[in-house]
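ok so i was messing around last nite and threw this chain in just to see what happens. nothing serious, just curious
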Amino acid sequence: MTNLHTLFVSFTTVLLSSLLLTACGGTSSSLNSSNTELNISATEIVDNTIIPAANRFQLQVKTLVTQSQHFCSTGNSTEENLEKLQQQWTETNFSWYELLPYRFGPMVNSEVLPTYLFIDNYRQRGHDESSTVRNNIDKLIASANDNAYALTLSQLGASSVGLLALEISLFEDAANQSIATTDIASEFQNTPKKCQLLMDFGQKLLARAKDIQQGWTINYRETGKSYRDLLINNQLEETLDDEAGESAIKKITISMQEFYDYLGKRDITTSAAQLSNSIWQALDKSLMSTEELLAGTDETTLSLNSIMANNRFEQTVLSVKDNIQTLRTAFDEKNTTDMKAAAAALDGNFKREISEALDINLGLNFSDGD
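result:
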């Protein structure tokens, strides 16, 4: 009887201790299950936000290519069709900015130059390559024959292709840099190589968009496995020697932090998407993606916000929401100074408050650089 009584007391003590820890909440109450919670949340971010963004970008580029082919067919290079094509470029760029904050995995790949550079060279160092692109377009249009054109096209580096090259091709004429649609359409009608160039730029962009989409969903770096599966199953390091075995949530958090570090330091509002006059709307797409990352979608069962709140970091959730609203106001007002300040605040949130609330160690050096 004594042994049974002792066993009962011990069991009751353990049970009460467990209940007290659960009731207390806070960080310590969730740490025992934080890895599982964060893995669930990261998986849902990948499935509900990142992969859909990669799918949309690939689809928008494909639509841009299809419309370019139609525009360049006989009799279709009209001002009306040009305006539709310009709008499609803008929609494509919007979809890129939804994906841009997730600069890791298939966005980088293992190439000498990362995949994303061939789409958006500005993202790396913040250099406006418009002059270089314009000079190369002039050379390509002036090519003496098809062989010279093909050779010059093959020699173009990452800074001379991608979204910027397509924007310049569609939103100004090469001869005089006129932005009048009548001049641009006329140049397409009278300069066959301008149309050929438009379609070639589009095909190059489509190849990169497919690399990213298929890397996430089908085959990453010829492993026969998707980056999605390798990442969430912690198989990257064992499958590829040069891949870091960081958790999915750490990669996602660092990538988002780097994006807002980039926004806070670069002159993006006066350098990117200028001819299309659409940079502010594009940046808002990135912000919407950030909100979705934190709050989840209709399919989300465990959001980062809910994990932080459960860990008693409700104030962090509110602070981040305030900074997001401040940034959106800066977008609406087209205020670059306020935009940079709000972006810097979110950069700090992801570096410190969010990582602390989620109990993620981001490491010693995780800045986007200069």
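not much to say yet. The longest helix spans residues 26-71.
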